[in-house]
Amino acid sequence: MADTILGAFMEEELLSQPDVWLRAIAQAGTERLLPQDGARVAVVGCGSSWFMSQCYAVAREGAGKGETEAFAASEAFLDHYRKNRDYDAVVAITRSGTTTEVLELLAELNGSIPTVAVIGDTGSPITDLVDEVIGLPYADEQSVVQTRFATAALAYLLTSLGTDVRAAVDQAREVLAEAVPAELLDAEQFTFLGRGWTVGLAHEAALKMREGVQDWTESYPAMEYRHGPISIAAPGRVTWLFGEEPAGLEADLARTGALYVRSARHPLAELARLHKVTLERARQRGLNPDVPRHLTRSVILDPSA
């Protein structure tokens, strides 16, 4: 059976990303469910969805669409923040729609502010707690390790801002067809960097490698990297950049002997490449990213615990 193959679900899901992105891009072009331009918005999520929230918040504000802040749902004390920031809407990103922290936050808001959920499972209980639902059921997943839902949600959100992400589609097809180089399969350690909205992608890349491979990974804003973290760069280790390259970083990394990975590809395509590297590294170690250690598809907390 297919699910006896290590990472069988993850493989199918990551390879489907280009087609899934096209659907999300088209859907975003026909819907107007997100907060209007000029609205002050809080974006919340957990895990991968939190990192996509970070990407969207920076991209939305950078596009001049309105003040936007991202929170981990467990730390989104919106009643406190609203007294000072007066949010006009809350956007929640969640694949399962069952994550305890997100549901509790929306229940606490109790209709006091307009809410929108970007979800994979359109039959989940979150649909009864929000005003608008952006359903991406075609991006939902069986693997615990997220790939296509997070990236499809981001493709939708970026498109809603007027950003053309279609270049990422063909580029992702190319990188997903490539073999993974031995130097990436055998690397001892990975650090991921980003700038602007791609800082969230760097955090997401690090999470994928930790979840799927049980690897030591770190992630930082690219300009922050030389303020200490570069000290761990060394031969046999990897520093991987998403997005714009800071001046001088290449030369600084060359002196460390670490492998420096960066590309002119769209950052979403680079993240798809990282997904494939993660899968192949997991398989090389006999690990199954469909059911990673200590993790479940959705974090549902026991209130009595």
Structural description of this entry:
- With 305 residues, the chain is an alpha/beta fold.
- The protein folds into two domains: 159 residues, Glucose-6-phosphate isomerase like protein, domain 1 (Rossmann fold, 3-Layer(aba) Sandwich); 118 residues, Rossmann fold.
- It contains eleven helices and nine strands.
- The chain has a five-stranded parallel beta sheet, with helices on both faces. Strands 7-6-8-9 form a four-stranded parallel beta sheet.
- β3, α5 and β4 form a beta-alpha-beta unit.
TL;DR of this structure?
The chain has eleven helices and nine strands. With 305 residues, the chain is an alpha/beta fold.
Proportion of beta-strand residues: 5-15%
Task: Describe the main β-sheet briefly.
Answer: 5 strands, parallel
The rough form would be described as: globular
Low-confidence stretches: none
Helix-and-strand structural type: alpha/beta
CATH class type of the largest domain:
Alpha Beta
Terminal Cα separation, in Å? 37 Å
DSSP strand count: 9
**What is the averaged pLDDT score?**
92
Structural domain tally: 2
CATH fold title of the largest domain: Rossmann fold
Strand order of the largest sheet: 2-1-3-4-5
Order of helices and strands: HHEHEHEHEEHHHEHEEHEH
CATH superfamily of the largest domain: Glucose-6-phosphate isomerase like protein, domain 1
CATH architecture classification of the largest domain = 3-Layer(aba) Sandwich
Question: Number of DSSP helices?
Answer: 11
Using only CA atoms, what is the Rg? 19 Å
Question: Could you estimate the helical fraction of the residues in percent?
Answer: 40-55%
